[in-house]
Amino acid sequence: MSRQNYLFTSESVSEGHPDKVCDRVSDSILDAFFREDPFSRVACETFATTDRVVVGGEVRGPEAVIKSVEEIVRACVKDIGYEQEGFHWQNLTVQNYLHEQSADIAQGVDAADNKDEGAGDQGIMFGYAVRETPELMPAPIHYSHLILKRLAEVRKNGTAPSLGPDAKSQLTLRYENGMPVEATSIVLSTQHLDETMSSDDVRAVVEPYIREIMPEGWITAATEWHVNPTGKFVIGGPDGDAGLTGRKIIVDTYGGAAPHGGGAFSGKDPTKVDRSAAYAARYLAKNVVAAGLADRCTLQLAYAIGVAKPLSIYVDTHGTGQASEADIEKAVADVMDLTPRGIRTHLGLNKPIFQRTAAYGHFGRAPEADGGFSWERTDLVDALKSAV
After folding, report:
1. Cα(26)–Cα(35) distance, rounded to whole angstroms?
2. What is the pTM of this model?
3. Rounded alpha-carbon distances, angstroms, from residue 204 to 150, 197, 223, 228
4. Residues with catalytic annotation?
């Protein structure tokens, strides 16, 4: 029997966090390739430090996109809002080391003769869904994301001009009978542009927006607040700390509430199953819960490089299932083709829809009309019910 009464904590980081700057650049380059050729192959990594952004990796796609990398980088940094000494979109140096995809990798991934398109790498991927929020996401990470997303909105629209792009949030929630009922602590560290601001001044700016995001009654008189607990936070972003693509994988997924296979997402085209199969696993787990087959579902997929079909499908409903795990495993395999090609086709992933995923989580977002966040749809509910 799982614990029903406990505290659980998750954190998020803003789009201006150094690692998220790099995720944004990598996914923006991926989108640029897909706008020109939806079957481009991209594995793009980004590193950022004081007034410098370095891009590298292997690609197969239009040469014009490779030549436009510097323009893409500057546009990303400008949109995030960095115009500070030490990291300014106009003044930074961009180094571009993108090169052609390895022929050895290509031969394993490409379809040929009677061979279907294979997975871009070996690995394990996890999906998760739980009835804690309407989005079927763990509440601590979900509301941590929403707080920072809201602060970015008011920073950019001029309502809170004293805030800077770099920020982190962290929520500790108290669970009672397995459901979140109260925030026992709220941690928020945010860059501010006015050097004279104290921690109390920053709290006065951010607290109304945090209260706006949190569910009614979760913030109480006993909730502990830690806003900029170290004091001044003026030097932010890659000037304050170096950034790297793929270094926030727990922030990107479930905030530690579920297992993680270890693969990062940003900068990778959907032949890389550590991205596309993680999306498929979330899609299936969410549909299992939405179908009423469980209140909580963890789903694992496993792949071998160059092999199309998954090696295994594993489901754990944590004692909440309305059907056996074995039956659900068979059902998810019946309702969705889980080869790399099948995932890309079913979820429509060969589109320029990835830049928007680079901050505030890859999961728990609303499906969009152009195909963005397609893995958040719940359109398999009837098929799963019938299959089970």
Report:
1. 15
2. 0.95
3. 15, 10, 16, 12
4. 17, 19-20, 45, 58, 168, 233, 241-242, 247-248, 268, 272, 274
